[in-house]
Amino acid sequence: MSNLWKISGEGRSAVYLPGLDVPETPIPSELRRQEEPNLPEVAEMDLVRHYTNLSRRNFSIDTHFYPLGSCTMKYNPKVNEVTAALPGFRNAHPYQGDDLSQGAIELLYRMQEQLTAISGFEATSLQPAAGAQGELTGILMIRKYHEERGELEVRRKILVPDSAHGTNPATATMAGFQSKEIPSDKKGNIDLEALRAECDETLAGIMITNPNTLGLFEENIVEVIDAVHKAGGMVYGDGANFNAVMGIVKPGELGFDVMHYNVHKTFTGPHGGGGPGAGPVSAGAALKDYLPGPIAYKKGDGYELKQPPKTIGRMKLFYGNFGILVRGFTYISMLGAAGLREVTENAVLNANYLKALVADNFPAAYDRNCMHEFVCRGDIAPGIHTLDVAKRLIDYGFHPPTIYFPLIVPEAMMIEPTETESRETIEAFADALNKIADEAVNAPELLHNAPASTSVKRLDEAGAVKKPVLRY
Amino acid sequence: MSNLWKISGEGRSAVYLPGLDVPETPIPSELRRQEEPNLPEVAEMDLVRHYTNLSRRNFSIDTHFYPLGSCTMKYNPKVNEVTAALPGFRNAHPYQGDDLSQGAIELLYRMQEQLTAISGFEATSLQPAAGAQGELTGILMIRKYHEERGELEVRRKILVPDSAHGTNPATATMAGFQSKEIPSDKKGNIDLEALRAECDETLAGIMITNPNTLGLFEENIVEVIDAVHKAGGMVYGDGANFNAVMGIVKPGELGFDVMHYNVHKTFTGPHGGGGPGAGPVSAGAALKDYLPGPIAYKKGDGYELKQPPKTIGRMKLFYGNFGILVRGFTYISMLGAAGLREVTENAVLNANYLKALVADNFPAAYDRNCMHEFVCRGDIAPGIHTLDVAKRLIDYGFHPPTIYFPLIVPEAMMIEPTETESRETIEAFADALNKIADEAVNAPELLHNAPASTSVKRLDEAGAVKKPVLRY
Amino acid sequence: MSFISNMPKDREMMLKKIGVSSVDELFKDVPADKRFPRVDMPKPLSEPEILLELSKLSAKNASAECYDWFLGAGVYNHFVPSVVGALITRGEFLTAYTPYQPEVSQGTLEAIFEYQTMISELTGMDVVNASHYDGATALAEAAIMSVRSTRKRHKVVLAQGLHPEYRDIIETYFQGLDMELSDGDLDDQTAGYIVQNPTWTGEILDVKAEAAKAHDAGAMLIVHTDPISLGVLEAPGACGADIVTAEGQSLGVGMNWGGPMLGIFATTQKNIRKMPGRIIGETIDERGNRGCVLTFAAREQHIRREKATSNICSNQGLAALSAAIYLAALGKSGFKKVAELSWHKAHYAAAEIARIDGFSLKTKGHFFKEFLVETPVPAEDIFAKLKEKFILPGLPLSRLGGGDKELLVCVTEVNSKEQIDRLVAALKEVK
Amino acid sequence: MSFISNMPKDREMMLKKIGVSSVDELFKDVPADKRFPRVDMPKPLSEPEILLELSKLSAKNASAECYDWFLGAGVYNHFVPSVVGALITRGEFLTAYTPYQPEVSQGTLEAIFEYQTMISELTGMDVVNASHYDGATALAEAAIMSVRSTRKRHKVVLAQGLHPEYRDIIETYFQGLDMELSDGDLDDQTAGYIVQNPTWTGEILDVKAEAAKAHDAGAMLIVHTDPISLGVLEAPGACGADIVTAEGQSLGVGMNWGGPMLGIFATTQKNIRKMPGRIIGETIDERGNRGCVLTFAAREQHIRREKATSNICSNQGLAALSAAIYLAALGKSGFKKVAELSWHKAHYAAAEIARIDGFSLKTKGHFFKEFLVETPVPAEDIFAKLKEKFILPGLPLSRLGGGDKELLVCVTEVNSKEQIDRLVAALKEVK
């Protein structure tokens, strides 16, 4: 591997800057930094070669099937990159004023309307920057709701089913609540008895991931929401799995009070090696006035930005991860309502098909139709762990699924194929998994030694913590 | 490898098109094609994955050192791609009229001026599409010159030194001349005696590659040109190696009458896996009126396109490979005269440095300072051929040089590092060559079996001709 | 700075190893009195400066997305899907060169092999090269090939309807050759017969009849066509063409103010060895794995020298890749749809325009996406008026030697009914 | 179409294997009365249509390349080299996700490891995470971390000069927490002391003195800074900062109408386990080869759940990559030059503006690239007049709660003298 510092040479640079065309103003020496930052020094070609070759050491959607459960690694249309790069979007400034930003505000307005329509809520804020921030937004809204009703002192508890997304408990903490775990029943639903036992006057709300992280639609969703509402609690929906229900059911109509979306999952913002995402939040009648803003509103022939009346405030600077929203808006506008339903149908169909193809060797943890993903186990033979199966998949040219999550299934493998993969790709992946099941018995060393095909082998993660090396 | 047809499924497509919004007009069945073209049928993701993975099977400047002699594989700045994609360049039409094309015509005009200035000629046409077309342009101009003087009937001979570019003889043929080869002397220059013997009344002209394909500057260039001129012949310069003389000498001042450039070599148009290039042509007083056009001229405050008075006509449609010219103009404008000289100095320095580093194992065919490239031999040990050395370089992560050319050096390797490579890269390449020289003696099977690191091994080229398979 | 890595310190080390004291010394073979001349050029611009400068120049040109666009005449405003740009700008495609070393060039080679396959499908021909500078130079080389293939004949006959700039280019290419370009009848000296279909003013010809005419005279039929039209019209190969050329710009290359474009060239199996240009073939490696290589190189200039079929070397590789990606992106159904949308929209527009008082249709018989209109006032005046309304109504034929009152109108899948209706409304007002 | 491969025939085959007769059957767990609702949305647009539609929306926004641009206030018009866009759009970077599987994610991992290194160099801090949503959320998490790190203290004190929107966001984040935000003096309840340097109106503070103040009170010093300023100004780490946050948008990310931006977060070695966000570490594989992995994951939400240091999961990975490429592209000398050019141009502009009758400089002491101007007429009026001349003169401070006659002017390396002189000339005319 090249290392930018090793290929550096004093004085090299990849960028031509304009010369100084104004008189110099000396920089006082007491302000000057003592030691110059040791940045790399390379010409443009060496820079490009370095990063191009680095990129080639990644698996990605554009190169490989990437069924990372719960991350919705669907295809990211190239048109998104073109629209997001339009000069009036890319080179605009958040403080240039509403009159010089009418195109951008109109886009926000129309996207708010799109999300509100597909989810069945009443209003939407596009501000949150990612799913986890969307969660925090929702819980802070619930908080302020109880606060304004004078009940916050007693309502300190947020219920989190054990099949919820991993971020949920941390989010409850950040909003100052105590989170309380609710177990799943043997069908993978929320245990209704356990839930009802917690539905008391200390209840602030519940965070429901539906479909949950087992990939199952909550069969008792109406009862669950009803129980929480009756106790005075509010219902937050983790919309990370919204790809499984678009056009199938509107969470707002099911009784959810607030829900976030992951634009980089459901609406094809690229994942970017970790982000940026966007985590818009929609709310129903009870909570919509608490949404963070500014939000886009119509004003005469044009549009304006305003805070909702009882807003919790700003979640981040300006108007959200606008560049990601442009991508999401592009995608939603191209699909329309029927297209979004088609997405969901095919996502669910692909998952069930894959589940069926591997059922003999990797039976799903719960024997039900799954939604957009399913969970099975990787400990398929003596001495074989999920990690071994995952690493062996790499040798077959597939990115491994999410592993060891959800925690309620031991040795879990959480597989989400998404709707953009073809039948043939699903079949090829199933073949690989079934072959690995055979290898697990007949040639287990292939699994233990996997991956064999990559530039680095399994890395010493414990060593990384013991002797931290966090920079060159 | 994936194959687009194998992953096709009936009805799939990667492009959303608008619906029909006008009444249908039936297409008469006698016009309709009988059999539909069997194009692939894939969704956008499968398309992107296919081509992305295909691209990863190429070596390229962005990923590897690529010292392909005579091709000037220098770095292609990324800013070029941005400027060439500006909407007024990319989405403009050649027939929209001069008034709606002022920006484009001004660019042509300014680039004509730039090339004229650096080459010392009097006028420039940007129309030719590539180097070989630039050559044809130059020879057709010489042809018309003789024709107008009534001498074409007898002047049928074009001299081509044996150190010239490979395209030259074919070009002379396409212009209706007989080409006559002139040998090199033992210093790698044109054999003056042999040349003078051909300088008679049948001489139409000479095609000089200078520096020649040995990478040597013609030491007797003044005498050569003088001899040809005295016999009434015209001197054509093959400017493919212009990267070696910018700011060092102006071909126009040396007495050349006409010369082409390779924008995709000298001026960083990307090579694109084989083109498009651009092959502008500059001419001195004797020939400038014959240039192909249209050419850009100033007109009042603006610019216009016109044919030169005695033009040979159009070489190609419209105004040349404009998109490539934009890239070249971007580059030249960023460098200016001093920058272009710096390019040449460093190209020549890099070549001489590399030549020195490998001199023990790969002595240059001619013991002189080289210009931007040099030629050595690959038959460095018994049973070892240039092809073996070339293929072994691949295993070291380097693209091989040009091999078996020029024809006058047996087992030739023609190495052009270009100025954009760093000293460190040159040294790493020299190390590899020197190691291979050692392997050639001590482990020759490594060379014979090379490349070992690629997805395909040496391919059966004879078989490809014997049993042609030219499509799926 | 000149995109160079090496700094003065590097250069010093290198000079020492070479054994010279300065870079200037490396140029001692250059005549001293001509060495290091003064070169006057504008001062260099930094990256932000050149971007600003060229943005300004770009803004001085009309750009299709700002107009209702009906200008064609050989360069067409067909839609270029975003995937094309995303893929051809990958460094591995963009910055590689001619695939001389197949082991490290399978990306380019396989992509062009696919291009050959798809163009073969479109044209109905066996063999496709990759590629020529544009449709006109492809056609000129086809004309030359027809003469060279039929030994004793030296004449190439042009049917009516060839784009005038194409004719110019064939004439340029014929200048030095013992070949004649003729508008006359076919005879026993005729090696090739060139037919553009649809003609440059839009008319669809009976190519089978033209083939019979050529073959009866012992000549090769060379058909130049619009590749988009092959989404619905019969393939020239099925009509008896011996060589097919086409301008591939419509296939995802973009308009680029006329360049780069893409010269398509296809012929029958038996003509392989006479064909100019690069060809990719499939073969196997030592282990029996399939791979692609440049093949039939013995025809080419670097091997056959003065006897080569052409001097072409660099071609339009990246444009050919664009065309391959374009065709694969649209696929069977999408490609047909582009052709059908263009047909229907053009016919709607033609009917609406013909209905305007003073306007009439001049293209005889069938047309595809382009048609000639007789205008009541000079077409240049119409162009001048409509461009102020951000409509480019077509090509005033007088710009290419046609009549004053002729306007060549082109309609493609990107023109909405709304745009067509705006054009019609604007034309109504010009009288 | 919805970017889906599978066609009806595929779906039939799949349903058969699954053992259901229709796709609808797969949704039987959804309450029947709510299933398959009517959804009203505008009709879908094809690719050419959405491109046209969004080009139109884009054209309704002011875009920096069309103006003389002096508007900053937290989002800056620094030059983004073309390489950044060329590299971050490579599919392998763009369409990968969190590098959970290091063997097939070394590209992302090494690039972020380099990012950590470069930000560590800039800030003078040991440890850098990758990354936060923006500078404000990074700062809010820093404030929270300071309280969590110093057990019994609950207060965070703000120095004067913090950007008002940043304050809003910290307040939002503090809503549910037992923490207090204060403008008062530091005391024994103070866990963190937040200093923005330069202040949001441009003033350069004495960070060492602020550090002493914080540390004397037993509090952590949190410095929020402009990373470009670190090309010339002393690193906060060298001044005693315990946590450094910054808005990384200037580092090659672009303005994007305010998002995506890049939250930079750095701290000292001893605080690693208290730090929120992702960290990449170097380690070795079974063969001893060096490689990078996500590390210290035990702090994170998916492991530690309700006791995690933060709930952050997706971050601004691609923006961090942009920053890495940007910093590496400029390099040591180029980065310094950006800072110096900004300094010199801003000081020239400030001097010229201060010379205009009725205008004066309000920023006290030293400033870097941004300064506050007192205007003779309301700054909003100036903005309104100058925008007609395609000059955005800065931020009227009244838009963020400042005085009517205050204008915050920002000058960077992209502003030429010509542009500055035009601004000055235009300001002269406003009275």
Automatic annotation (TrEMBL), chains A, B:
EC number: 1.4.4.2
One Pfam family, short name: GDC-P
Cofactor: pyridoxal 5'-phosphate
One Gene Ontology CC term in the entry: cytosol
Reactions that this protein is recorded to catalyse: N(6)-[(R)-lipoyl]-L-lysyl-[glycine-cleavage complex H protein] + glycine + H(+) = N(6)-[(R)-S(8)-aminomethyldihydrolipoyl]-L-lysyl-[glycine-cleavage complex H protein] + CO2
Molecular-function GO terms, alphabetical: glycine binding; glycine dehydrogenase (decarboxylating) activity; pyridoxal phosphate binding
InterPro entries for the chain: GDC-P_C, GDC-P_N, GDC_P, PyrdxlP-dep_Trfase, PyrdxlP-dep_Trfase_major, PyrdxlP-dep_Trfase_small
Domain named Glycine dehydrogenase C-terminal: residues: 344-441
Alphabetic keyword roster: Oxidoreductase, Pyridoxal phosphate
Gene3D superfamilies, alphabetized: 6.20.440.10, Aspartate Aminotransferase, domain 1, Type I PLP-dependent aspartate aminotransferase-like (Major domain)
The keyword Transferase belongs to this UniProt entry's keyword annotation: no
UniProt superkingdom: Bacteria
Domain named Glycine cleavage system P-protein N-terminal: residues: 24-295
GO BP annotation list: glycine decarboxylation via glycine cleavage system
SUPFAM superfamilies, per the entry: PLP-dependent transferases (SSF53383)
Xref: NCBIfam families: PRK04366.1
Reported function: The glycine cleavage system catalyzes the degradation of glycine. The P protein binds the alpha-amino group of glycine through its pyridoxal phosphate cofactor; CO(2) is released and the remaining methylamine moiety is then transferred to the lipoamide cofactor of the H protein.
Protein name: glycine dehydrogenase (aminomethyl-transferring)
Source organism of the structure: Spirochaeta isovalerica
Automatic annotation (TrEMBL), chains C, D:
Residue ranges of coiled coil: none
Keywords from the UniProt entry: Oxidoreductase
E.C. designation(s): 1.4.4.2
Segments forming domain Glycine cleavage system P-protein N-terminal: 2-426
Enzyme class: oxidoreductase
Gene3D superfamilies: Aspartate Aminotransferase, domain 1, Type I PLP-dependent aspartate aminotransferase-like (Major domain)
Keyword check for Ribonucleoprotein: no
Taxonomic superkingdom: Bacteria
Catalysed reactions listed for this entry: N(6)-[(R)-lipoyl]-L-lysyl-[glycine-cleavage complex H protein] + glycine + H(+) = N(6)-[(R)-S(8)-aminomethyldihydrolipoyl]-L-lysyl-[glycine-cleavage complex H protein] + CO2
GO biological process, one term: glycine decarboxylation via glycine cleavage system
Entry GO MF terms: glycine dehydrogenase (decarboxylating) activity
Claim: Oxidoreductase is one of the keywords in the record: yes
Binding partners and assembly: The glycine cleavage system is composed of four proteins: P, T, L and H. In this organism, the P 'protein' is a heterodimer of two subunits.
Chain's role: The glycine cleavage system catalyzes the degradation of glycine. The P protein binds the alpha-amino group of glycine through its pyridoxal phosphate cofactor; CO(2) is released and the remaining methylamine moiety is then transferred to the lipoamide cofactor of the H protein.
HAMAP family found in the cross-reference section: GcvPA
Membership in a protein family: Belongs to the GcvP family. N-terminal subunit subfamily.
PANTHER family: GLYCINE CLEAVAGE SYSTEM P-PROTEIN (PTHR42806), GLYCINE DEHYDROGENASE (DECARBOXYLATING) (PTHR42806:SF1)
Name by which UniProt lists this protein: Probable glycine dehydrogenase (decarboxylating) subunit 1
Taxonomic placement: Bacteria, Pseudomonadati, Spirochaetota, Spirochaetia, Spirochaetales
